[in-house]
Amino acid sequence: MRPLNLCINIFSGFIYEQQITMLLLRRTVQAGKHGRSFSASQTLLSERKGLVLGVFEKEGEEGGLHLTEAAAGFDQTLSGKLSELLKISGPTLKQGKSRIFYGIHKDFPCVAVVGLGKTTAGVCGSENWDTSKENVRQAMSAGCRLLQDLEVKHVEVDGCGDAQSAAEGAGLGLFQYDQLKSKKKNKVTTQLHGSADSAGWQKGVTYAEGQNLARMLMEAPANHITPTAFANTIEEKLAPHAERVTIHKRSQAWIEQQQMGAFLSVSRGSEEPPVFLELHYNGSPDSKQAPLLLVGKGITFDSGGISLKPPSSMDAMRADMGGAATVCASIVTAAALKLPVNIIGLAPLCENMPSGKATKPGDVVVAKNGKTIQVDNTDAEGRLVLADALCYGHTFNPRAIVNVATLTGAIDVALGSAATGVFTNSDWLWEQLQKASVVTGDRVWRMPLFQHYTRQVTDCQLADLNNVGNSRSGGACTAAAFLREFVTAPHWAHLDIAGVMSNKDEVPYLRKGMSGRPTRTLVEFAAGLVHKG
Ligand code: BES
Ligand code: ZN
Ligand code: ZN
Questions:
Q1: Cα dihedral angle (30, 31, 34, 36), rounded to 10 degrees?
Q2: Whole-model pTM?
Q3: Can you name one GO molecular function term for this protein (predicted)?
């Protein structure tokens, strides 16, 4: 019997998942061009390997498919069996759609094939991202997850001509925070298939691991990731890069010495001591090169304080350290990539809790730069901790300052989870961030820093500034205007990431949960500064 016939026989009821797994496991299948026989049942469940391949839609040919290089190579070893199966098994695989074939190759009992869309997709001016890269991420993520659900332990992944994006899709798609569950998801290891671009693959693995570190920190419960535990975790993650990294875990006494009255006004309601985490990554061969300064809001739990939040979804406020998580994770990633730039990371870490000692609405506090702030709403705490961190950050004479914060519900109303809101005083910095985000697909959108908003926070009864605007409207913009009062540097950007903090199903290659966005954009942005003096 010719191999192709046998194959069609076996796969006549192809191949949507489990129904026929058992059937196929019992059959003996002719293996590819070498014509060897093998029994799929001999493959132990615990060592089953899978393969994820991509197929493009052929330009100008309705229903036509164009195999990637790896898929074409695989098809060849099976004497065209894969393309034959793709033809007979149903409609053409559209972008993101998948099909699984069982038992067609002796090394890979399960092969997932996923649609990559059109070969010509590329950068899209209206979507502000590279659709081809997004398609690869989505497809490789979907394929890996399908195989993970089949309890495949090791998956080889098609580089799809963009091994970095393929690795990102695989690494991000497989991530699941299940440390605290008794029943965990099947752990899957991945490897590049049919491509020589192992450098691109490794870079993608590192980018995905960076974002997954941020996801892990954000998803973890607030009784596990306290300010102290956060700082210790980052210290551990940076330990392999100790040669180029210095870490300071600044104590409450240091924070007091620095006269960070705004930061301390937030932490005072909690029993957990605050930590001011300071990371120095010295990657540049020129140790005197002005650093990039990244500042992340690190509220490990935001109850709202005395201006207590309503109980529904308050649990999500364990991720209110998303700014600190993405900033620190991007520095860990920069160190892993050995990026030749200097970066300083600052994370004011504390809880925002109500207690007899907590700051009360109407209290006035003094920030590090001497400005007085009337705290009319203790739930607008992010801007207070950032104000002091920004003042301190200027002492390093940074080439640029980027602060990242889950700052306002209003940015979620404005942009949803499509993009991070960026408020910046620098067209140059905006361009760098925007360019990076097109590559990563983790997008940014520029927002205004008009005096109009500044007036709303400087109009204050008792102090220089009010921590909330005098109007309910434009909340993300008044928060940014408040932060600007603590910035004198010419290249500063504030990234409000409250809208992108979590994922339901909007980003197809992230499961439901805390997103770790925009870690990859921060890394790509830092990498883009390498040749910029
Ligand atoms: N951490 C919140 C913002 C937030 C909301 C993050 C939803 C993620 C998802 C922040 O501290 C806050 O409570 N902001 C207030 C400000 C208001 C009191 C002026 C808000 O957005 O409602
Ligand atoms: Zn708050
Ligand atoms: Zn907050």
A1: -60
A2: 0.93
A3: metal ion binding
